[in-house]
Amino acid sequence: MTHILVLSVVMLVYLHLWFLISVIRKNFGLVDIAWGLSYVVIVWTVFLHTKTITTASILMLVIVTLWGLRLTYYLFLRNWSKPEDYRYVNMRKNWGKHPNLNAYIKVFYFQILLASVISLPIQSVFYVTEGFEWYHILFLVFGTLLFMLGFAFESISDAQLKRFKSHPENKGKIMDQGLWAYTRHPNYFGDFVIWISYFVIMFYSLDVRYVFAIIGTCIMGYLLRYVSGVPLLEKRYKNDPQYQAYAESTPIFFPKFKK
């Protein structure tokens, strides 16, 4: 209970900080920057509170920090000085006279609450039993390799898309090169693999008391594929002939390496 209380207080402070920044800058889209960084805040809060030092906990601390800071930096460069994202512009129109109150409850509070649940694999690693058998090490190695794969997919595809958009001649064109030639959403696929790796690393000791933490990975996968990730972009380009041609030859999520 102490862990839950401490994390709740920290996340509420974090929530209000980003909400205040967004209101001042009149840009609710800044919550996207807060999203990746929230997991860094969570992992460090739990680590400093529990003071758990195991192979898995230190590994988790390092990789979550690496992933979260990279994502935060990428989204900061993309969103901080730009106009509010079209999604939040539409939300403002629908909310009428009380956009700040609606954003506080439906965007900021909801996302922080969601992050607290999704991060169950990250939090649980600080409570599982330490293991030193060969199969424990195998889980850690496999989880680390999965993280490296997912991190590579996400970071490389983000960099490729950014470079593609930086060329004026590509304005209005669809990115179908590099990793984007194998899946229409390589960054989301990479993110999903990363969250699988978090659960694998957490479950390395086969401590069945914490198997429930897989719900965090499942929720993230569902959101990426069916709610806030893939569907929004697919809907945005549903009437784009070039994108539809691209969609006919390229898988929507799981990559297919063409011959």
The stretches of 5 or more residues where confidence is low (pLDDT under 50) are: none
Q: Quote the distance from N terminus to C terminus.
A: 54 Å
Strand content: under 5%
Give the H and E element order.
Answer: HHHHHHHHHHH
Report Rg: 19 Å
Brief sketch in words of this structure:
The protein is an all-alpha fold and 259 residues long.
Description:
This protein has eleven helices and no strands. It is globular and about 55 Å long. The mean pLDDT is 92. Helix content is 71%, strand content 0%. The protein has helices at 2-25, 31-50, 55-79, 86-95, 99-118, 120-124, 134-165, 186-202, 214-227, 230-236, 241-249. It folds into two domains: 1-127, no CATH class; 130-259, no CATH class. It is mainly α. Helix 7 (134-165) packs antiparallel against helix 8 (186-202). The longest helix has 32 residues, at 134-165.
Helix and strand topology:
Blueprint: H1 2-25, H2 31-50, H3 55-79, H4 86-95, H5 99-118, H6 120-124, H7 134-165, H8 186-202, H9 214-227, H10 230-236, H11 241-249
Helix pairs in contact: 1-2, 1-5, 2-3, 2-5, 3-7, 7-8, 8-9
